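User: I'm curious what two different proteins look like when written out as structure tokens. Can you demonstrate?

Assistant: Sure. I'll show them one after the other, since each token string lines up with its own sequence. Here's the first protein:
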Amino acid sequence: MKSYREQLNPREKSEDKCCEDQCIDLKGGNKVCLNCGMVFDVHLVENERRAYNNEEMEKRKQNEPRWREFGSRTVLPNHKIDYKGHYLNAEKKTLFLRLSKIQNSLISSIERNFWEAKPRMKQLTSKLNIPEYIHETAWKIYTLTAKKKLTMGRSIEGFIAASLYVAVRVHEFPKVLEEISDAAMIPRKSIIQSLSLLLKEVLPELNLSYKPISITQLIFKFGNELGLPMETQKNALYLVSITSKMGLALIGKDPKGLAASAIYLAAKSTNERMTQTKIAKAAKITEVTLRSRVKDFKNKLGLVE
């Protein structure tokens, strides 16, 4: 009976050609012919061994990071055995403990800051499904912020969230401040305080322009989250365009409230069953704000209930 590996690799020992001009290359762990697309071999990767406590984690650890992206490239491990598997004696344990303390004393405060901030920003970016190029811009902003010592005496979490939000606004990615605040689990006020410092001190040096989120982006964002058809979203966009030409003041008002009210009126005109509570929850505003903006639209359009 053939093994599982032999069943997956039926052509492993075969020398038959798939086409006249055979050109085999390794693509994604598979041997593939570039001309006809025939897969000749599948490389299986063994699963990592599981560990359920600290002792098993130490025993089954297969590799150890030997360098970092910044700071000292040498990492002194906490193992009590040498490379041959022999236990260290008391003298060598004392020596390595002393070397570890000396190494830690040579690490600067900004390196410690980066070691703490880098994984947090990566976790926040992954949690919000933000692309890698925005993460790189956010890390560049935070790096300059730390080098200018703006984080001293202030919240590191606030600057991480603020840097990510600034990068989102620079690249015009449809994310609102409330989403980043909820994902980072810090108050919105803390992010705004850090945001003001970034806009004054950091962005001019990086030659980056902060672009506030537009009503158009919010209409499509909220419409997709609510599952509304494209026709309703276009009607909401047309409603905003018409009322702005008629003199509706858009400056100085929260764009989330304007976008949500336009979506509500457009859904009502196309007979889409959508409640004020559901729309306000998606836009992260109160129902009072939604009703006030709807009233402004109706007054400008001359609609009287």
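Here's a second, unrelated protein for contrast:
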Amino acid sequence: MNEFTFLKDKVVLVTGVSTTDERYKSIGQALAELLARNGAQVIAVSRDQEKCEKAISHLRKEELSIQSKQCDITDHSQVESLFKWAEETYGCLNYLINNAGTEGKLEPIDELSLDNIETVIATNGKGTLYCLREGIKLMKLSLDKDNKKDCSIINVSSIAAEIGMPNTSVYAYSKAGIASITRVATIELNEYALKTNTSPIRVNAVLPGVIRTPMHGRFLDDNGLDGIPPSESSSPEELAKCIITRLNEKFSMGSISIIDGGYTAQ
């Protein structure tokens, strides 16, 4: 039985859908599964086409509506082409989940490598902005055709945007920017909705805590750790449910939702 009936036939684009570590499922992979199995038409995006195909191959076998698309979100021309293809293929875009991101290297501020700064800011900062830019354009075109079309965006940030953790300065900086741009976009899009008499494009952000993903696995490996207790972490599947629930919250706009099992409440 489907949990999210509102997703039926909705066009959803998700970035960061890939698989890199057999021990862990990625957030993008969990999102793609839940969206497709609830009747959405899913565009699964990754910079690595092969890893994206591997992440969704089982969904194709189930004959669900999902396509993989290669796109390096740090390259604006590729992002522009991606959303143009989405328009030509589906004619509209209902939902966008900006999930792609990278943690970079753990380094003290005064020892940051320039390559680390460039890589993290390019993906988490510029990449998210590029997808927002083109996604909002396509959603506005969709609303031109149907002024009541349901359009919603979720930006995936991190609790690093809210709390200080050593050696994560570039990552925290980039994720805090994602939370801030969520509020800016909300103000702009609410004004647009009033001016054009269209349904507002909702933009919200989620700030996950520790999620058991390939990124989590790299952190454990790099720091010689065996694991983090389940009570202090969550599964990608559980986070995916939280994200998809927020897609459909009609009065939630510009919200910054911490999803960390109470970790930051300490």
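A detail about the second structure: Helices lie at 27-37, 49-61, 76-90, 114-145, 169-196, 214-222, 236-247.
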